[in-house]
Amino acid sequence: MEEIAIPPLPTIVAQVMQFDANNPKNGAADLEKLVVPDKAISAELLRVANSAFYGRSGKVKVLRDSLAVLGIKATKNLVIYLSTKTMSANYKSDTFKKYLNRFPIYAALVAQNVALETKLKPQADECFLAALLHSIGMNIMALQKQGHYSDMIDACEKNKWELSKLEKQSYGSTHTTLGKRAAEAWKLPEIFKRLMEISPATEYTNLLDPLEKSTYIASVVASTLLEIPYPEAAKANVQRCYTDLGGTQNVLLRHGSPDALAKIQAHPFAQLATT
Question: Which one of 19, 77, 212, 255 is most buried, counting C-beta atoms within 10 A?
Fold first, then answer.
């Protein structure tokens, strides 16, 4: 069976991911130089910075000011999201909009929120990025299999079938395998090869690193928010991961509730997924 090709990583994503926001020598002006050539992304950054969420409605006029409002780390994550989002920009099906647009950003925001209340607080932005990219294999699969893949996901939702099994049977590969291959091809940090294999079906014993546990929590909670089916065992596993990270509440009640969904939907990053 023909191997599914891995598309090149957009240049702006490669550059932004290599930008070290923790280096005091790197400032907003340096990041601005990387972003400004992409007019579409620059416009989206301005739009987000002017959203009611940041309380600057209509006051942010230039890109550098939007970076100041958003912060360098948040800007990096948003640029990466906007770039990967273009991989599914031409797909109109509701299924793809849910899985390829809303799921990644919901998962990223959940991961960030969980990090901020656990021992991963210093790594909140890294948790955001890990959760954002962990399902990128689905975007790659959709790029090449399009309508057939959308129908497959619909069938899995309706019949509660395991998506990875159907992917393997039909395409000879799974989206998690594609994600791992993408991490290798794009020369992402080593841990991303493991993160790309995470889904709600991942066994608890395979989640060793705190970032893996954060990504697993994000995957399960985002699936809950979007009513995407997942194994029953995930409900116990996600709580174990949350407790391991220092969480003290019921994670699905706290982050997977209707109130939590409303807060996610109100976030300007999530609102980009509906456009």
Answer: 255
